[in-house]
Amino acid sequence: MYRLKNQTGMALLVCMVILLLSAIAVISTTKNSALANRSSYLFQREATTFQLADSALHRSLRDFRDSPAARMQARSDNGLRVTTSSRGAGASDSLPGGEIRADAVTRITRPDPVGNSISEGVGGTKFFIYTTTSQARDPDTRASINLEAGYKSREVN
Question: Can you give the pTM of this predicted structure?
Fold first, then answer.
């Protein structure tokens, strides 16, 4: 009968080292993947926050331009307020995390009309200076975006 020689365990040691190196490679890849996933999540949330602030700014400007009532509201102490949300009508529900809100306020900057250089008197064109400030905040990432636009409105007396 054939007898096996005593083994010193070298094959087991080599297998254990290979297993250890494989485990380190898997853990490293998983960690890098999780980091990339988190980075992507933060970028998506920040981009959405900016887009909502920009959307609120443009919506406020559109309302101001198209509605005489909105222009009168912009002259009030509270100003013309517009709110948009990541969970609002038409918004995608695929955004992970909590709701992002953006608020825009249009206020008159110069309450006294600035006269046109061509006609200063009665019946002339008057310009009013307005400012819209838009702010969006993401409660999940604590990102905050502030945008501001200034413009003048021509009104004929």
Answer: 0.69
